[in-house]
Amino acid sequence: MAAIAARALERRYKSGLQAVAGIDLTVEPGEVYGFLGPNGAGKTTTVRMLVTLLRPTGGEATVAGYDVATQPGEVRKRIGVALQEAALDPLMTGVELMELQATLHGIPKADVVARSSDLIERVGLVEARDRRVGTYSGGMKRRLDLAMALIHRPEVLFLDEPTTGLDPVSRLTLWEEVRRLRDEGTTVFLTTQYLEEADVLADRVGIISGGRIVVEGTPAALKAQVGRPHLDITLTPDADVDRARGVVSPHGELQPPTEDVHLRLTVEHGSASIAPVVRALDEAGLTVAGMQLVEPTLDDVFVQQTGSHLEGAGAPAA
Amino acid sequence: MMLVATLALARRALRGLLRRPQFVAPLVLFPTVFLAVNVGGLSRTTDLPGFPHVNGFLDFQLSAGITQSLLLGGVSAGIAVALEIEMGFFDRLAAAPIPRASMILGRIAAASVIAIFQALYFVVLGLIFGAQIEGGILGLLLVLVIASLAGTGFAAMGVMLALLARNASTVQGIFPLVFVILFVSSAFFPRALLEEPARTIARFNPLSYISDGMRDPIISSISWGPVLEGIAAALGLVIVFVGLSVVALRGRLRDA
Amino acid sequence: MRDSWLTIRALTARAMNEVLRVPGGAIPGILAPTIFMLGLSSVFGEAARLPGFTAEDFRTYIVPVGLLQGAAFAGAATGVNMARDIERGWFDRLLLAPQPRGVVLAGLVSSAAFRSLLPGTFLVVVALVLGVHLPSFLGIVLTIVLVMGLAAVMACWGSVVALRFRTQQAAPLIQILGFVAVLFTTAYAPFALLTPWLRAIAHVNPVTYVLEGIRQGFVGDVTWADTWPALLAVVGLLVLLGAWAVRSMRRFGT
After folding, report:
1. Taking all residues of chain B, what is their mean pLDDT, rounded to a whole number?
2. Is B30 on the interface with C (CB under 8 A)?
3. What is the ipTM of this complex?
4. Is the same domain home to A167 and A263?
């Protein structure tokens, strides 16, 4: 049974705006699914429908085995949600919010305190637990929000743009946490506008644009569709080009030469390919002026599908 | 330059009011409700010995409604300025090459115009429900003059509070105080029939004279005594509060 | 069932933070009905000398009005807070809880009922100091029930408005209704002395009966004849507005 399954999911607002125009997706239990798209593509609307905050105007979806439209109560028992705006009450302390969340999710009174403390410790907020949330930094608020989403040990966790606006260290910490959750068996549905985040964290990625999913698959498979990584090697002006080409050709596919001292070698394994090539050239006594690994990115995937860039607010591809 | 800047800012204040009807409603709705309830519940008090001769209790209460509405307008002007300060628009004005005083005179001047409409609203409302303006056209004009002056004075008071308080919620907390001051005046009931200590305080409360000054042309033919006292009290408020708000402005600009 | 009770308790406790943790924030709401009563009685006090007035003095007559104003204000504040929570996204958190909508609403509304006791207590203390005659124990219990009931009713109204408009700017709409509901009654004078139009409105306004239910203890004895209409009015309003509020919550986000 899929953790999340959506068929032709649609949302048309009363004003006529079609925010989501027919989404099909399936997320298997224990998977990290990256939902990637530019601002305004319909990510948040889709998430709000899947977490039962918004009713679909067409299509259907089940989460944790229950229909979001007809059995929302059952869905809510099994999902954890951390929305874009960390919706916290500034007048309450961290531990008070955790305990309120526990109560709202029906956790037995005897377990409330213990579980709250455990989660606070897990996200590293022990020192701040008794301080009012109004005094927390952005990163701390996100961590508390995540802890609150986990209090009832949900099967499926929805994270809506969890690292937007966070400093790099906080971002890495959150990525760590997502990996840990996946290892524990939680399904994670992650929306993001950062392709690096989707690339690094997601088992599978779905790219949304204009209210529809335009392409879906593992990051590696999607990028492979666009092309394979290649090494751009720049030799020194006095190099023996033919010999260099002979040296590197066993390590990949030589592309037609563009200029004399530039070689382009398509390789299988991205950065793992660099060391052997460097070693081979070195052993042959050939000096290299520069080498660069160029990998297709999810942005390239997006451009291929839609003609626009993913990052940079939908600027048309050059 | 002073005039140009003041007029431009006055126009802006007026436009702002018209574009945000949710600010207008409390200004006028609330005193209307109060007026209706007072009239509906206490009309018989006109029978009490000592009550001046009136066509109806409504005629008596109209000037109270106007005064209350003008006071709320003053608080509202104060909140608007406090919000401007909070949002930084005020600093933008300070950086412009306009005379310092015009930064606030615009809004105060706008209040003098808005006040006329507030007063007219109650007059028309009163006429619809059977009140009469005994003093005729001249009486109506006198009511509008006093209302305009009083509205200006109250707006200046609101602006002064905003400059001193620096945030909108403090100014908003002043709202109950407005009621207190109005209650210890002869706005709603003849001074002679008030209980102590209200009666004594009312004697020194400018709101008494402003209300009485507007009331006189409505309930009887014009007696220059109360009317002139009303004009004097309103003018006094204008002078005092405009002066104080300019001082407060200077103080704020110096500290900023 | 135990879940629901704990939820209601937790949400009520949270709402009380507004009063307990914001320094001075609650003071205007607590003082306002008392100020209103004092002002009103010093201005219109002489009205009690009119023939047909059913109380010894005006102040005693209008203390119940102040109690209901405190209730109405507490209820309205709950609605305004809900609008703020919706704007801020906190409300989403409540909607994501696997609790029935009615339970969440009950949690939010019950805080209003408790909050209404603050201005009410202050008002009664001041009134006592000024010599107003207080009701018997039964009258006080009835007063508390009716005040808390009206606060809950107003909180339901406030919730309906908040859920419909989703912004704090709808606050005046909530407050004005409370004001009108409490004042367009026998607030200032008995039926016989009201002008015909106000008398007609007061007759159909359920809050009039709630007011009279409270007032009876202050001006005389508590009788069943004056009590049952008050209870019926509160219960009826609570059922109607409560249902409307729950329905609004269910439809939120559709």
Report:
1. 88
2. yes
3. 0.84
4. no
